[in-house]
Amino acid sequence: MLNLEFMRNAYLAGTLIAVVSSVIGTFVVARNMSFMTHTLSEIGFAGASFGIFIGWPPLNGMLLFTAISSILVGQLSGQIESRRESVISAISGLFIGLGILFLSISQKNASYATNILFGSVIGISKDDVHLMAILSLLVLLVVVVIYRNLKADSFDSIGAKINGVNSNLISIIFLLLLAMSVSVAAQIVGSLLIFILLTLPASSAKYFCHTVFSMIVLGTVFALAGVWIGLYLGYITNWPVTFFIACIEAAIYGCALLYNSIQNRSE
């Protein structure tokens, strides 16, 4: 299996995606931003469609559109949390419409839309892996730099404000990191199902862990398990990799819920 270049590229890309998704996903879960993750995946579809329309790689288009939308959400919602969902919905609707338009006028066949929405293991080249590696390292580096403030703002926002943390700035930076993570991870699981890797591993890990760092580590293990096993099963069955990743992560989450239920009954 690993004798094939496209499978080696897929495993390298999948490993990068799993690590970045679990790190960012931990804070997505803590900040209750699962809805935003789903919205960015839809916006990523529009960006990829735009990239195809003007002759760019889909990843470049996704990065452009998700970054712009993240800044818009951060600026328009500001400090008013109650306004965030309305802003996200408005921006999401606009970009989905643009995605359909760009894909339509680009005159590409249905396989392009399928690859954007559900990912394509075969379509990952060495250059794609190199670009994903650069973006992944950039995301992780920024997280390390702002880790203390991001952790405080995500898990204890009131205490963070008392200690002088600029919550609005942290929020915009995090949204940009999330946008980059969505664009990177969509190469494997597609724009529609990216929220699987950005929410389920971290959501599962929180039932077993009591510190932020341990959540990140265990979430990474869960994400790697889903991606690696999913790629293997996809190779031997010729079924969509995304299907297996979704099933594995959902199964892990189900086990986490069962474990939490047993723990609560025993207390």
TrEMBL record:
Picking any one GO biological process from the record gives:
transmembrane transport
Please give the InterPro entries that the UniProt record associates with this protein.
ABC_BtuC-like (IPR037294), ABC_TroCD (IPR001626)
GO cellular component terms, semicolon-separated: ATP-binding cassette (ABC) transporter complex
Chain ranges passing through the membrane = 12-30, 50-74, 86-103, 132-150, 170-200, 212-235, 241-259
Q: Which superkingdom does the taxonomy of this entry point to? A: Bacteria
Q: Does the keyword Transport apply?
A: yes
What are the UniProt keywords, alphabetically? Answer: Membrane, Transmembrane, Transmembrane helix, Transport
- Give the record's membrane topology: Multi-pass membrane protein
The family line of this record is: Belongs to the ABC-3 integral membrane protein family.
Its name, as the record gives it, is ABC transporter
Q: Which organism is it from?
A: Lentilactobacillus curieae
